[in-house]
Write a structure and sequence with these properties.
The chain contains 12 helices and 2 strands, in the order H-H-H-H-H-H-H-H-H-H-E-E-H-H. It is mainly α and 282 residues long. It has a two-stranded antiparallel ribbon. Strand 1 (209-211) and strand 2 (217-220) form a beta hairpin. Helix 5 (90-112) packs across helix 6. It is globular, with a radius of gyration of 23 Å.
């Protein structure tokens, strides 16, 4: 009876894909196979919500508000990375983890380099200029806008183009933002690696190809992918704990001991997941 159910579930995946009953069964197996990581992820997530409730922006500080709003979004992204990972959507989970690295860069800059964080706020003008130009030159793109809205977009376009001509538009790439917040290792290791999965790339897509025993290409892989399940949870929790550390700098919440305890537990789980990382006795 159990074998029949498994066969039926697998066949269901070929019809409905990740919206199938098979995927929901995979979620259950994922949680049963990584109970320590699942419990830890939930613990970090709950702690993040506690911290969100404690943060208070004083004197309408724009940098503190930027950090808090970024972290609020990051928590949702953190949860999303888990929901995708437990369903075997490995690349999609990694795409959200890449978003977490960007949130981490910004919050670290808010904590360590206010000038860079302020520069980031104004750097949005260049992206807005590009978006408005694309919108106004694309046929039919403004069909749902009122004449007043279109006139406002043209006014903004004129203002932003004038700033560009005067070389007054601010730019700050993520590498520069990472350096400002002392996050270069995260940029070089996590951001670059996760970027392979965010957009189609030869190195990132190579994992999707299936080979036979002779090395010949047989097709493309389909279905849940759990080859890096604990890696996904480890990376996401690392990035959120880094953000929590920086929030402590900004808001002085007195949560260092809690963060340290969580970091020790994460390290313990990594030791179990990656036995080769265990330190040899002196």
């Amino acid at each position: 009876m159990q074998e029949t159910n498994i066969k039926t579930n697998v066949e269901d995946f070929s019809v409905s894909g990740f919206l199938s009953v098979y995927t929901e069964k995979s979620v259950q197996r994922f949680r049963e196979s990584l109970p320590g990581w699942v419990q830890f992820f939930d613990q970090v997530n709950r702690f993040a919500f506690i911290v969100l409730g404690k943060c208070q922006v004083k004197d309408k500080d724009p940098i503190a508000l930027l950090a808090l709003s970024t972290f609020s979004r990051a928590v949702a992204t953190f949860e999303g990375s888990f929901l995708l990972a437990e369903r075997g959507l490995d690349c999609d989970s990694k795409s959200l983890q890449r978003n977490l690295t960007e949130d981490s860069f910004l919050i670290a800059a808010c904590a360590r380099n206010r000038d860079a964080a302020t520069k980031f706020i104004y750097a949005n003008e260049e992206e807005r200029r590009k978006a408005i130009n694309a919108l106004l030159r694309t046929i039919g793109a403004t069909s749902n806008l009122s004449p007043e809205q279109i006139a406002e977009l043209k006014r903004q376009q004129e203002s932003l183009e004038a700033k560009k001509s005067a070389n007054e538009l601010v730019k700050i790439p993520y590498g520069e933002l990472a350096d400002a917040g002392n996050s270069r290792p995260i940029f070089d290791i996590h951001y670059r690696f996760l970027s392979l999965f965010t957009h189609p790339s030869p190195s990132g897509m190579a994992h999707e190809i299936v080979y036979d025993e002779t090395g010949k290409i047989q097709g493309v892989r389909i279905g849940p992918d759990y080859h890096d399940a604990h890696g996904n949870l480890s990376t996401a929790t690392f990035l959120l704990l880094r953000m929590l550390t920086d929030l402590e700098i900004i808001f002085q919440l007195g949560i260092n001991s809690e963060i340290e305890n969580l970091e020790r537990r994460r390290e313990g789980l990594n030791t179990l997941s990656y036995p080769q990382h265990r330190k040899s006795p002196d």
